[in-house]
């Protein structure tokens, strides 16, 4: 009886409130034959639901799906990622190794989670009170979540955080060579044309600045990979239905994640955009469930 009451209370506390449109998603990935061809990055169609969805419709379709998870996004994702989501993002910021006073542009970061980890790192590790974050997200509902989370913080009062609605594929309103760090976390897989976002990132980062991306990867391990695939195919939609009352949206979100290119392919795409990546170009968390790409824009 107690456990049933607890589960009912958890479900009620995380119930999704329908919105008009929505933002970003996180999950797990596995190794498969999908999206291992570089041509996937510029394809005119996307195998989003197991069939072909025109790229012209992907942005609208995914945005419509994300509207249903925006209000309880972080809480639901923590559960679906077996509470690894926060660890991944905290480690992501550590891997960036930001310098004091750096301006970060956090793209697809509406909920403010990366901004929170970034400014905490700057305050505690660097003793820095001058660094700042500009958060850009396509969806106003996701931005509203971030404003609610960070609106009463000292960072907001000191004007170290700002919010703006914008498209990752063009970043209109962000000046050329204007940011020290560009970050995007679990956002690239949502975009119809990731290569355009990479070009936009290159444009706005200062020479010598940092490109940092945290994205879902392919688990190549022959034992762990099938387990992750089973989890995404079966458990995520069921848990999404149980926790949020919307299994269909979580099934679509999972398919969007797994159609993203393998980390080797995406690392090459980052290099093609002009960034310098060390070594293999990426670092994996948990066998490749999440992948970190950190590169540099060359000095002129």
Main features:
11 helices, alpha/beta, disordered N terminus, seven-stranded mixed β-sheet, single chain, 300 residues, two-stranded antiparallel sheet
Topology:
Blueprint (H helix, E strand, L loop, with lengths): L1 H12 L31 E2 L6 E2 H12 L6 H8 L4 H12 L6 E5 L5 H12 L7 E6 L2 H11 L3 H4 L3 E5 L13 E7 L8 H11 E12 L7 H21 L2 H12 L4 H10 L10 E3 L4 E7 L4
Parallel strand pairs: 3-4, 3-6, 4-5, 6-7
Antiparallel strand pairs: 1-2, 7-9, 8-9
Helix pairs in contact: 4-5, 9-10
What would a concise description of this structure say?
The chain is α/β, with parallel strands linked by helices and 300 residues long.
Strand order of the largest sheet: 5-4-3-6-7-9-8
| Beta fraction | 15-25%
Mean of residue pLDDT?
79
Number of strands: 9
Through-space gap between termini:
66 Å
Going by helix content, strand content and strand pairing, the class is: alpha/beta
Radius of gyration: 18 Å
Largest sheet composition: 7 strands, mixed
- Gross morphology is globular
Helix content: 40-55%
Number of helices: 11
The sequence of SSEs as H and E is HEEHHHEHEHHEEHEHHHEE
Q: Which segments are poorly predicted (pLDDT under 50) over 5 or more consecutive residues?
A: 1-43, 45-52
């Amino acid at each position: 009886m107690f456990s049933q009451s607890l589960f009912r209370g958890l479900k009620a506390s995380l119930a999704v409130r329908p919105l008009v449109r929505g933002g970003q998603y996180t999950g797990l990935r596995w190794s498969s034959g999908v999206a291992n061809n570089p041509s996937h990055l510029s394809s005119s169609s996307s195998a989003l639901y197991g069939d072909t969805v025109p790229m012209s419709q992907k942005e609208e379709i995914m945005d419509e799906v994300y509207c249903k998870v925006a209000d309880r996004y972080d809480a639901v994702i923590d559960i679906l990622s077996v509470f690894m989501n926060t660890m991944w993002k905290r480690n992501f910021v550590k891997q960036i190794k930001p310098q004091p006073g750096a301006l970060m542009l956090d793209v697809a970061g509406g909920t403010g989670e990366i901004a929170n980890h970034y400014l905490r790192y700057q305050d505690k590790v660097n003793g820095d009170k001058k660094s700042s974050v500009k958060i850009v997200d396509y969806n106003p509902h996701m931005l509203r979540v971030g404003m609610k989370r960070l609106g009463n913080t000292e960072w907001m009062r000191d004007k170290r955080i700002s919010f703006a609605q914008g498209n990752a594929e063009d970043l209109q309103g962000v000046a050329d060579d204007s940011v020290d760090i560009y970050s995007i976390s679990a956002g690239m897989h949502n975009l119809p044309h990731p290569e355009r976002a990479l070009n936009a990132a290159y444009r706005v980062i200062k020479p010598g600045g940092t490109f940092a991306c945290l994205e879902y990867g392919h688990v190549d391990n022959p034992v762990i990979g099938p387990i992750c695939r089973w989890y995404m195919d079966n458990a995520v939609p069921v848990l999404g239905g149980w926790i949020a009352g919307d299994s269909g949206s979580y099934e679509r979100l999972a398919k969007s994640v797994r159609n993203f290119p393998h980390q080797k392919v995406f690392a090459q795409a980052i290099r093609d955009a002009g960034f310098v990546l060390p070594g293999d170009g990426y670092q994996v968390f948990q066998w490749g469930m999440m992948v970190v790409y950190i590169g540099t824009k060359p000095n002129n």
